[in-house]
Predict the 3D structure of the following.
Amino acid sequence: MPYVNVPNDLSKIKTKIAFNLTRRQLICFGGAAAVGIPVYLLTRHALGGTGAMFLMIALMLPAFFMAMYERDGLPFEKVARNIIRAKFLRPGIRAYRTENIYAPFAGPGAGKEDVIEKHKEEKRSRRQG
């Protein structure tokens, strides 16, 4: 009897529609073809065959990249959005700050700095005295 491995996590398996491509890949490749082929046909006489081909490739590569690139299960747009958020939109260094909700009940001089200063003064007085 033949044995077939079935993965434990079925969420990583993507549905293939046509030509063993996903829906996202078909849309991106179709968009690239819809942009690249007319550009080649319209610029072939003005730029020559080689120049038109390089222009077509330059215009189609971003769509191919968006179709194929995936990192940790996220498509290119989400990865780029996360990088932009982390590098530019959020603060780089976040200071660790806590808020003492009991400070109003402890009275004046019960803050962290006051307690540390009081402890240092006690140490000094023990050394001197």
About this structure: The chain has a mean pLDDT of 84. The first helix runs from residue 23 to 68. DSSP finds four helices and two strands in the chain.
